[in-house]
Amino acid sequence: MDEALDRYVRYLVAEVNASPHTVSNYRREIAQFMAYARQRGVTAWGQVTPALIRGWLADLHRLGYAKASVARRISELRSFYAFLVRVDAVAENPVEGISAPRLPQRLPRPLTEEEVRALLAAPDPSTPAGQRDRAMLELLYAAGLRVSELLGLDVAALDLAQAQVRVVGKGDKERIVLMGGPAVQALRAYLEDGRQKLLAAAVKSARPGESATPPRSRQTNALFLNRFGQRLSVSMFTRILRRYARAAGIKHRVTPHMLRHSFATHMLNRGADLRSVQELLGHETPATTQIYTQVSQTHLRATVLRAHPRAGGSEEI
């Protein structure tokens, strides 16, 4: 059983190009089920029955696992068995007839346009780090990027003359996204000044005895750099974002993905069509983007209730 799981993990890495986080989750949570099955005398994946899987799910519920966590494990096990069927390791998929628990739909919470303006104005453009941070925030919101896409950008991906950037998204799929004037200005200022100073500071911070030329680990085409001249990490960006959110007076928790939500919602609120937003976000199907129309409808409903003379009650005009 272990060998089949190892083979599946190699498939996720080599062919699916799954992220390390996804691969780790699949391995850990499928192994959790494998341990459960072994305790009940199962020695091969072909011996697993739907009844055994339902018993495992019932145990997870009794242990207090959230519905989303249970649903994820069902999905992972179903995908794993689909792989085993495809490589003729088992004859059938015992997960096919098992339904995941119904999850309450959670609408993403976007920032208001006022909150976004305050957030984008928070970095100090007179410092190299401030120039970098303003460029990152402007681009993240202007283009609706995932944070991994933002931090994975190289300098060569930018075309400031055309106000566009080439992004490599999930599954190594490439798309072109657009940005407005403020993002272009912030990026130009960072490239011409802040990034050069960050690289120079990284060279000066080299330990005694190191060459004045940046070592290979510091030679990078990465667009956004940390103080060592290397690519900025997601955790560091998240800390930077939260610091600026506090400085902007935003009371609730702000996450990197919230700016992506805000991009999509604000675009739809201002009349963009769903298909265009889908393309810009890099979604495979309109169904993924459809959730933002519900957020937009919520905004429209609040606007009607606030502004229409006969929307709020029974008073005669």
Brief characterization of the structure:
This protein has 317 residues and is mainly alpha-helical. It has twelve helices and three strands.
Can you put this structure into words, describing what you see?
It is built from 12 helices and 3 strands. The protein has a 3-stranded antiparallel beta sheet with strand order 1-2-3. The radius of gyration is 24 Å and the shape is elongated. By secondary structure, it is mainly alpha-helical. It has helices spanning 2-16, 20-39, 50-62, 67-86, 113-120, 128-143, 147-151, 181-204, 234-247, 256-269, 274-281, 286-307; strands spanning 158-159, 164-168, 174-178. Strand 2 and strand 3 form a beta hairpin. The protein has 2 domains: 2-86, DNA polymerase, domain 1 (Orthogonal Bundle); 114-253, hpI Integrase, Chain A, CATH 1.10.443.10.
Descriptive labels:
single chain; 317 residues; mainly alpha; hpI Integrase, Chain A; 2 domains; 3-stranded antiparallel sheet; 3 strands; elongated
CATH-level-4 superfamily name of the largest domain: Intergrase catalytic core
CATH topology name of the largest domain: hpI Integrase, Chain A
Strand content: under 5%
Give the fraction of residues assigned to helices: 55-70%
State the low-pLDDT regions, or none. 211-218
Report the strand count.
Answer: 3
- Largest sheet entry: 3 strands, antiparallel
How many structural domains are formed by the residues? 2
CATH top level label of the largest domain? Mainly Alpha
**N to C succession of SSEs:** HHHHHHHEEEHHHHH
How are strands sequenced across the largest beta sheet?
A: 1-2-3
Question: What does the average pLDDT come to?
Answer: 80
General form: elongated
Cα(first) to Cα(last) distance is: 74 Å
Helical stretch count? 12
Q: Which structural class is indicated by helix and strand composition?
A: mainly alpha
What is the alpha-carbon Rg in Å? Answer: 24 Å
CATH architecture of the largest domain: Orthogonal Bundle
